[in-house]
Amino acid sequence: MTDVNPQTATVNAEIRIGNRTIRFSAQFSNEAIQLHELLPFFQNITDKVVEIAIAEVIESGKRISCHNGCSACCSHLVPISKAEGAALLNLIETLPEARRSEVRSRFAKNMAALEEAGSGLFDKLKKAALDHDKERIKAIGLAYFDLDLACPFLQDQSCSIHPHRPLSCREFLVVSDPVYCVKPDPAVVENVVLPKRVSSILYNMSSRDSNGDTGFMPLIQLLASAESIQIEQPAPAPAIDWVNRFLESLGG
Ligand code: SF4
pLDDT 10s digit of each residue in the chain, 252 long? Predict the structure, then answer.
């Protein structure tokens, strides 16, 4: 799969996803980098996987209900990997001052609303990164959605960071009537099941075995956890090593 020279390595990959094949050829550095520096690559692969899922939905006679201007899913508890957390923190720093302050104050407002809502949700969210119980995380997510807290990046019903949006936002699609999305009842909301979830691979790659975390965190905790996100990034590794590890999980 790789052709290595001292500075770079070329990756020529063919990976079977669902009933299609993703092909790409790209060069990666042999220098050690942070995992989040490869996010454009992971975003690109996520978009390719989502395209495959959409094609399969259409072939099955259904259609994707998500459309411009619908932002019901932007009040969900958006899970992000710690690597994406680091990249989003950097992104916020590059925003013009007025916009940066607005985004920061929206995060603070949502965190205050969470605390005021009581029911222990604030504390549960703080510990979510260490919780491996998927059902419990799902229940926390539904309780969070009930609070109707729009994502701090949502602007005029659109994602203000669309090219940089988290992998889980890219992966979220429904085929059921969008009217049901205002109350995400699994009995009526039909999500598109992706053949592969790049977001989950990134959670695993972002997790640090030493402290047993899951590698993911709720987006809303981004600013409150800024310091720990930076500290808890996985150790830098050669880009080619990250890519090979990723492709192994994607193809496995
Ligand atoms: S990051 Fe963008 S797409 Fe994702 S929840 Fe926020 S506004 Fe919506």
Answer: 445 556 888 999 999 999 899 998 999 989 999 999 999 999 999 999 999 999 999 999 999 999 888 888 999 999 999 999 999 999 999 999 999 999 999 999 999 998 888 777 777 777 776 777 777 878 888 888 989 999 999 999 999 999 999 999 999 999 998 888 887 777 889 999 999 999 999 999 988 765 567 778 899 999 999 998 988 899 999 999 999 999 999 987
**Residue ranges per structural domain of the chain:** 2-251
223 contacts 102 by C-beta, under 8 angstroms: no
Contact assessment for residue 250 and residue 42, using Cβ atoms and an 8 Å cutoff:
no
Contact 13, 37 (CB under 8 A): no
Residue of 153, 170, 173, 219 to mutate, ligand 1, most atoms within 8 A of C-beta: 153
Reference 72, options 140, 145, 137, 166; nearest CA is 145
Pocket of ligand 1 (CB under 6 A): 74, 78, 151, 153-154, 159, 161, 165-166, 169
- Retrieve residue 134's tokens: 């998927």
What single letter denotes the amino acid at residue 226?
A
